[in-house]
Fold this sequence. Notes:
By secondary structure, this protein is α+β, with helices and mostly antiparallel strands. It is 72% helix and 8% strand. The protein has 2 domains: 1-388, MFS general substrate transporter like domains (Growth Hormone, Chain: A); 392-518, 2-Layer Sandwich (Beta-Lactamase). It has a 5-stranded antiparallel beta sheet.
Amino acid sequence: MVKKIQLPLQTLSLVVSFMAWVLISSLISYISQDIPLTAGQRAWSTAIPVILGSLLRIPAGILTNRFGARLMNTVSFFILLAPVYYLSQANTFLDLAVGGFFLGIGGATFSVGVTSLPKYYPKEKQGTINGIYGIGNLGTAISTFGAPWVADAIGWSRALQLFLILLVLFALLNLFLGDKREERVRRSWKDQLKQVYRNEKLWFFSIFYFITFGSFVAFTIYLPGFLVSYFELSKVDAGLRTAGFIALATFLRPVGGILSDKSNPFVVLMFVFSGLTLSGVLLSFGLTMPLFTLGCLMVAVCAGIGNGAVFKLVPLYFSKQGGIASGIVSAAGGLGGFFPPLLLTLLFGWTGHYAIGFMALSEASLASLILVLWVFFSNKLEFASDIIKSTADAVMVTDAEGVIHTVNAAFTEVTGYPKEAVIGKTPNILSSGFHDRSFYNAFWDTLLTTGKWQGKIVNRKANGEVFREWLSVTAITNEQNATHYVAIFSDLSQADSVIGEGEGDRLAENQFSKKATRKEAGE
Length: 523
């Protein structure tokens, strides 16, 4: 029973954590009426919570593996009481900066669920589960839409104080309903880091999440103030529109996880980054309300699906180092939301336009699309290589000219030739001289006509020993119309049930000797 409620409990906890994380950006229009802020200070006030919310995700993932989600969530909610109350008493920009920095703890708790929940489910469901957990992003929409309503009624300071009740409630819920027996991983974080930091896929996933989650966070914290200052919307209207953006991205996150469970997540990311590239271009053309709305909706759709797809990949490739890998990738996503608001404000101050900033989103997304394509096709090659390495029979792959490109360990075991001795040479290195030209002519005629050949053949090992093998050769053409030949063979000399163990070798040797004698005699 306790295990069954972890998904809803941790998802709701993430909702509340994210509500706390974006409190300043949700109320910045009200706060700036009482605390004079420049445009730059407004941007920093909304961006600063992202710093700690990003950096703490790495230790949060590691600590969740060691102590469990119950303790991590409980402690986090109690700690958040301090910065929320401090912000309610803020009088200067410095107060907002200090309180906002520690408010970032709310964003760091994302690593808790993505580290903990995969322990309860098989791999084929982890994309869906992480997608459902990601619905916790909805907390940003609730704050963005709800906080202005409450502030209108009782003021922004009391609205923050009212939120303290919710924090205490969820601290107690996690304390009493959290799983006390969650599986612990007590391996050294240094050992885990050594195992993952050299894996290039970790850094590729970090880049992908930097763009997808970063764009989600950036639009979430920047839209309320931007809609009020640029389009002169009311605070409540701006909050409602931002909440719609957040809700759409959030509810599509499970869709990204489900699609990635049912298909290749890299293919899903191809569509995601194609869409983000197009939306960035659209936003750059002109900030009219219809175009801006369409561009934002496209960002919401692509970011939501992309977030779910990336966190299908992380536990898939790093199941044994889930805590630190999830922490690094999610930290990259948080940092992706930190820079864009500052960049947009800076560029607007320099040029009076936002086009360059939005075009940067397009260019970064296009670069990510190229990386996804590269990783996708690299994975296919790695997969094929893994199959060759794990095959029990000997495998030899040549190009269309018959030059050997690769062999597996079984090839060396059967023939005695190490990989380095045959790469770049032709299969003639194995020739025993037993077969005449007509045999090889028939072999190539069949292979070129049908694309495959099977049969028995006599070859020679590195030590000079002649052996019989069952050989299967298949022609394979790739996407670039390049042909390769894959030869798979096994030593029949050790498994002939008719003539007895070892007789196959002696028979081949005798036949070869007789053939050689006839040649010398001029027959």
